[in-house]
Amino acid sequence: MPPDRVHTAPVPELPEVETVRRQLAPQLRGRTVLATWSFGTPKFDQAHLAAGSTFGPLDRRGKYLLAALDGPDGERELVLHLGMTGRLGVRPGPIDGPIDGPIDGPTGTHLRAAWELDDGTTFEFHDVRRFGRLAVVDHGDHDGLPTLAHLGPEPFDDAFTPASLRAAVARSGRAIKTQLLSQRPVAGLGNIYADEALWDAGIHPRATRLGTQRAAALHDAIRRVLDAGIRHGGTTLRDYRDATGAEGSHQHRLRCYGRAGRPCLRCGLPLRRTVVDARTTTFCPTCQAR
Ligand SMILES: [Zn+2]
Questions:
Q1: Residue 257 C-alpha to ligand 1 middle, in angstroms?
Q2: What does pTM read for this prediction?
C-alpha cells in the first residue's frame, strides 16, 4: 500500500470519548431540548428527533456516546460518534444557526448539530471532516447501527477477561493489531492505544495467537493504557479537544505510538514503523519479537 493511502490521522478512542462523557453528563442530565438545528445531511439530520425530550444519563459504549432521552416518543437514545474530528460542547446562549462554517464557541469549528436546552445553553456537535455521525433510536435499539451493535465487551467490564480475549483472537486468525482495531475482542481501542497496549504487553502486532500468559499480559495492558489515557484527559495529537475545548495531556506520556526511530523505553533499541493491514504501526522488534 503506498504511503499516501495509509491511514495516519489519530481519531478519538475510548479515553478521549470517556473524558468528553464525564464532562458532558452533568451538563445534559435533566435538561429538556427546546429547539434543534442540524447540517442537512443524513449523518446529522436526526438531531431534530430529540426535540421536546429530556436528557437522562450519558453512557458510553466503545467510542460511542449514548444519551438517554425521555420524551413524547417514549424512551429514546441519542447516539453520537466523533469520527475523526468531531467535538462536543455546551455553551451559553441559544442556537446561532442556521450556520455552516467556522463559528466562535467552546469547540470552535464547524457546527453540524445543535440542541438548545431549557437552562439557556446549547449543546453543539462540531465536525470539520464530517466522519462523525449521530442517530436517534429507540432505547437500546442498535439494529440500524451495526458497528455499535457488534462491539466486543467493554474493557473495564467483567465480561472482558484474558480467556475472552484469547478466544476472540483465536477465532479470527488475523493479526492481533487488526483484531484490536476491529472492536470485536474488546471495544474502544484505536491505533494509539492498540500500539501502546501491544508494546506494554510485549506482543508483536502481527501475532495471530495468544497463549494463556500473553493473553493475561495483553488484557492487563489494555486496561492499564486506557486507564492512563483517561486519567490524563485523553491524547491530543492534532484535532481532539475535550468538551471544554481543552487538549488532553496523554500525548506527553505515550511510550510507543508515534515514537518510531526513537529508543524503546524498555530496551533502548530503536522502535520501528511498519504497516499492518493498512494501519501504521509502531513496535519494538526486540521487546515484541514474534
Ligand atoms: Zn524494546
A1: 13
A2: 0.92
